[in-house]
Amino acid sequence: MENSEDEAESDKLPLDLEPLRSLAPKFPTILGYDVETQSTDPLLVYATPSIPCSSSEQPQEAPASFSLPLPKSPVPIKATPISAAFPTPQHEDESSDQDYKPFCKNKKPAMPKRAKRPQQAEKSNDANIKRRSIRRNLDNEFNLCSSSSDNPKESVEGILMMFDSLRHRVLQLDEKEDASRRADLKAGTLMMQNNLRINNHKMIGHVPGVEVGDIFFFRIEMCIVGLHAPAMGGIDYISSKNKDETLAVCIISSGGYENDDDDTDILVYTGQGGNSRHKEKHDQKLERGNLALMNSKSKKNQIRVVRSAQDPFCNSGKIYIYDGLYRIEDTWTDTAKNGFNVFKYKLRRDPGQPDGISLWKMTEKWKANPATREKAILLDLSSKVEHLPVCLVNDVDDEKGPSHFNYVAGVKYLRPLRKTKPLQCCKCPSVCLPGDPNCSCAQQNGGDLPYSATGLLAKHTPMVYECSSNCQCSHNCRNRITQKGY
C-alpha cells in the first residue's frame, strides 16, 4: 500500500526538463548507501564520450576498479569528481568544458586532436638542423671537409689548419662584441660538435699522424687530433668496469717538476685531485687518473707524454710539445706544500725516439747565447739589421760559407706591379676598426679587416687589401702588417 501511494504521488509531480550540462551522467544513489560529497561536482563515474572515434582511435575501457563488488555493509562512500581523478590535458587552442554546449546549432564538437610532438624532440630536431647549417657554412667559408687522406700526417695537418682558420675567423667576429670566451675554445667546441676531428678512439702508443716534437699552441688542438682527449684534465686514460684494467694513455706535464730541467729523459709527475680552487683541499685519492697511472706501472704499458714550455711570444702563455712515449718506473706518496698527501710517479722515456723537449730546451739556450751552438759559422748573418740575430750554421761539412755577400732585409721586385684599377682609400681618422661600415679598406676585404688585433691573418683569402699611403689612418693601423716588416 505504501509503495502504491508513493507511485501515485510521484505521478502527480511535474518533471523539470533541463539540458544536459555535463558529459558524465549522474546515477541515482544506491539503496542502502550514503554518498558524502564535499563539492557539487558529479560522482566518480566512467562514461564513454558521445563523440565518434576514428578508426585508428579506440574507446578506452573502464578502469578495473569499477568491476569490484560493492561492500555488503552499508558504509558511507566518498566520491571524487572524474575531472580530479583523471585530469585531461588542455591545449591553448582547445575550449574548456564550460564553454562547450552540445545542443548549440552554431558550434560542433571538436574532434580529438593528435598529441603534439614532445618539446624535447623538437629541440633535438632544431639542434640537428642548426648543426647541419653550421657545417654547411664552415664548408662554404673555409672549404672544410672531414679529412679522408690516406696519409695520417696530412690528415692531422688538415685538421689543425682547419682549426687555425676557424679560430682566426671567430676572433675576428668576436671583436665586434667584446666576447669574454676565448676564440680557441669556441673554435674547438664547434669542431667537436660537428665531428670535425680524427683519431676518436683512445689508444696506447703513438697516435697516427702525430710525430715526436710536434708543437701545439692550444690544448684543444690535442683533443681534435686524438693525442689527449680531456680538454682540461692532465691524465687521459682508458676506463673499464674492472678497475685493474683502467690504464693511462697520455699525460700533460705543466712544467716545474723535479728533474724537469736537468734530465729530459726522466719526469716526476704529480697525481690529480685534492687541490681544487672551488672545493676543500684534501688528500689525493687512488681513483680515476691516479688509479690508471698505478695500473700502468704494473702493466708497464707505454704512455704518451706532452710537456709544456713558455710561449716565446707571450709571457703568460704556454705551448705544448709531444715528447714521445714513457713508462712508469716507480710510484710513491709525498706531502705537498699544502700539507696533504699526493701521489708521485716517476716516468722514463723510451730510448731511440727523436728529440722532443730536449731540442726545444737546446734551442732556448742557443737563442740566449748563439755561441753555444756547435758548428756556428756566423753568429749574426744580418749584421744587426734584423731584430733577432740570424745565425749561420753548417752541420753538413767544413765549408765556412760565402766570403762576401749583400744581406737584403726586404723584397725587391724586378718589375713593378701594375694596378688594374684604382684602389679605394679609407678616411679613418686614427686607425681602421673592425665592423666600421664607413671604412673603404674593410669593404674591399669583404666587410671585415683581414688581420686580427695581434696581426694574424684572420681568413684565408686570395687577395688582401692593406691601407695605402693615400689612406688617412696612421702607421699604427692593424691593416698595415706587411708595411711594418712582419
Automatic annotation (TrEMBL):
Localisation per UniProt entry: Chromosome; Nucleus
Residue ranges of every copy of the Pre-SET domain listed in the record: 424-485
Record region (Disordered): 48-133
Signal peptide: none
Superkingdom of the organism of origin: Eukaryota
GO MF term list: double-stranded DNA binding; histone methyltransferase activity; zinc ion binding
Keywords: Chromatin regulator, Chromosome, Nucleus
PROSITE patterns: PRE_SET (PS50867), YDG (PS51015)
Any single Pfam family the record assigns to this protein: SAD_SRA
Biased composition (Basic residues): 104-117
UniProt GO cellular component terms: chromosome; nucleus
Domain YDG: 205-349
InterPro entries: H3K9_HMTase_SUVAR3-9, Pre-SET_dom, PUA-like_sf, SET_dom_sf, SRA-YDG_sf, SRA_YDG
Basic and acidic residues bias (residue ranges): 90-102, 119-129
PANTHER family cross-referenced by the UniProt entry: HISTONE-LYSINE N-METHYLTRANSFERASE SETMAR, OS11G0131600 PROTEIN
Name of the protein this chain belongs to: YDG domain-containing protein
Species whose genome carries this gene: Oryza rufipogon
Higher taxonomy: Eukaryota, Viridiplantae, Streptophyta, Embryophyta, Tracheophyta
